[in-house]
Design a protein that fits this description.
Layout lengths: L2 H10 L3 E4 L6 H16 L4 E3 L10 H4 L11 E5 L17 E4 L10 E4 L6 H13 L4 H14 L10 H12 L4 H9 L4 H12 L2 E3 L4 E6 L1 H7 L21 E7 L5 E7 L5 H6 L4 E2 L3 E6 L3 H16 L3
């Protein structure tokens, strides 16, 4: 489905429930909240399904858009690539999906897939332009959160000219870019800083330094005094080491499994690696869950990454 088709469908229907993905990040939350706001401006009944994993930094921004009860006729997902990423507590069919992940499984009745967009927030911005001409100041702030967090504050390789143009448009619409950037990229708890110290001191390298790995155990999290509110974008930490081509972050889960985040340059498609373990994502940023402790997961992943890198 094209964005124009989606805009027409949204105009013709009503009673929308908006889904964000499990372990929600700024892109899924900001995009979903902005979409909810835009639909309400059309006179539609729309709300986000409360996601039990929303962390504290995002609560003030999304709480006005969360559903408080009642039945909905249509379900829309935002930034969700597969049913395995549905939020905890949701079981059902999705009528329309907005996504930018090339690994999207096509689970929805209709899908707007823009795989070249750096963030789903760019897709929602264009949709709002079709529906209203321009975003409100509040929608602009929500979409700036979406785009900036999914690009590492415009540092990642997914950033294009269109990404900067979208950010400029959001600034023009009134988004507090300086305040939001300080909150999401330059403000951390003592526990987060302590955890980062443990992560950096424990970095491991493989394949002549071309692979760097960070293992985050439950014991490390406990020792730092960290909570889920301190876990945003841990995947970016090992990638700061000079000389690497692929980085991976392995985080131990309470159930004994390991959550894996993979990042790479252009030479290795880490989505292909993640898909071997039931995950997916983008060519240079992907993730999966391995049903094993971190050390076993690391032992399984490193040979695959070494093979993908080759001897050059």
């Amino acid at each position: 489905m094209t964005l124009t088709d989606a805009a027409r469908w949204l105009t013709e229907n009503d009673n929308y429930l908006i889904l964000t993905h499990a372990r929600p990040d700024g892109d899924t939350l900001g995009s979903a909240a902005a979409l909810t706001s835009a639909l309400r401006r059309l006179g539609k009944r729309a709300a986000m399904l409360p996601n039990p994993e929303i962390t504290e930094k995002f609560v003030p921004f999304v709480s006005p858009y969360l559903a408080s009860g009642g039945a909905f006729e249509r379900v829309i997902s935002v930034d969700i690539a597969s049913p395995g990423l549905f939020p905890r507590g949701f079981a059902g069919e999705v009528d329309l999906a907005f996504d930018h992940h090339p690994s999207n499984s096509g689970f929805a009745g209709a899908t707007v897939l823009e795989a070249k967009r750096a963030a789903c927030g760019q897709i929602v911005l264009e949709l709002i332009e079709l529906l209203h001409g321009e975003p409100t100041r509040e929608e602009a702030e929500l979409l700036y959160i979406a785009i900036s967090t999914d690009t590492g504050c415009f540092q990642y390789a997914n950033v294009t000219e269109e990404t900067f143009l979208a950010a400029a448009e959001l600034a023009r619409a009134g988004a507090d870019t300086a305040g939001l950037s300080k909150l999401f990229f330059r403000t951390f708890s003592r526990a987060r800083l302590a955890l980062e110290g443990a992560v950096f001191s424990g970095l491991r390298t493989f394949h002549r330094g071309r692979i760097v790995a960070a293992v985050v155990t439950l014991e490390m999290v406990k020792a730092a005094g960290a909570t889920e509110n301190d876990m945003d974008d841990l995947a970016a930490l090992p990638g700061r080491l000079e000389g690497h081509e692929v980085s991976l972050t392995l985080r131990e889960n309470e159930n004994g499994a390991t959550r894996v985040s993979l990042r790479s340059g252009k030479r290795v498609n880490v989505s292909d690696i993640a898909q071997k373990f039931g995950g997916g994502g983008h060519a240079m940023a992907a993730g999966c869950t391995v049903d094993a402790p971190p050390e076993e997961a690391l032992a399984a992943l490193v040979p695959l990454l070494e093979e993908a890198l080759g001897d050059q």
